[in-house]
Design goal:
Blueprint: E1 3-8, E2 23-24, E3 27-28, H1 29-37, E4 45-49, H2 53-60, E5 68-71, H3 75-78, H4 84-94, E6 99-103, H5 112-124, E7 129-136, E8 141-144, E9 147-150, E10 167-178, H6 179-185, E11 193-197, H7 209-218
Parallel strand pairs: 1-4, 1-6, 4-5, 7-11
Antiparallel strand pairs: 2-3, 6-10, 7-10, 8-9
Length: 219
């Protein structure tokens, strides 16, 4: 099967300036993530989609051209209000592949080993799509108007935390989907959906400077 890895990388970032090339351990974020997944035994090609010259320059400095290619994004897919699905649709219509891994570099807690284990599970169990997530055993509440309501337990019968049913927090690290599933559902997730469990530290995505301080300490 032809398996590709898609990395969308916009140039603009409102909360953290130049987030995708911010240096962690003296390495630009996008290069740090690429180096982590480059040794994947199952991914045939890594495709970076960006119109930012600083990002494409960083990627070119890796000198890993045999497996990595950069592509320009359409103006439609680069708009702030455009969902990632706009880009994924354009890729699906333009390129030949069987399975895609959508990788979000704002979550640097990824390795080639994780990707290959997830892909093996995806193929073996016959999933149409998959998301990475962290298992949570927490007491979940929801605010409704002027009161709070428990979502997964009764306050009159408070269970032990180990007896709460598992919930999963989507960590935004990666998504896997079959091309035909995406074209059918017009979404990265659809059909038979699998979950690949990641460790707790992967909850932290690089969205703001608080995340940055936590991630720096963790990696």
């Amino acid at each position: 099967m032809n398996i590709i890895c898609i990395i969308p990388a916009r140039g603009g970032s409102k909360r953290i300036k130049n987030k995708n090339i911010l240096k962690l351990n003296s390495i630009p974020l996008i290069n740090l993530v690429i180096k982590k997944i480059y040794k994947s035994k199952l991914i045939n090609k890594i495709m970076i989609f960006s119109n930012d010259q600083n990002i494409t320059k960083c990627v070119s400095e890796l000198n890993l051209n045999q497996k990595i290619s950069t592509y320009s994004r359409s103006k439609k897919s680069e708009k702030d209000e455009a969902s990632t699905e706009v880009l994924l649709k354009e890729i699906s219509l333009k390129f030949n592949f069987d399975i895609a891994v959508l990788l979000q570099i704002t979550n640097p807690f990824i390795t080639a080993k994780i990707i290959d284990k997830a892909l093996t599970m995806f193929i073996k169990d016959g999933y149409d799509s998959m998301l990475s997530a962290v298992p949570m055993k927490s007491f979940i509440w929801e605010k409704k108007k002027n009161t709070a309501i428990p979502k997964n337990y009764k306050i009159t019968k408070r269970p032990r935390s180990q007896n709460i049913n598992d919930y999963y927090l989507e960590n935004g690290s990666f998504y896997i989907y079959k091309k035909n599933s995406f074209l059918k559902n017009k979404n990265r997730l659809g059909g038979k959906i699998g979950i690949y469990e990641m460790k707790k530290e992967s909850i932290f995505e690089l969205d703001d400077y608080n995340d940055l301080e936590i991630i720096k300490k963790l990696i």
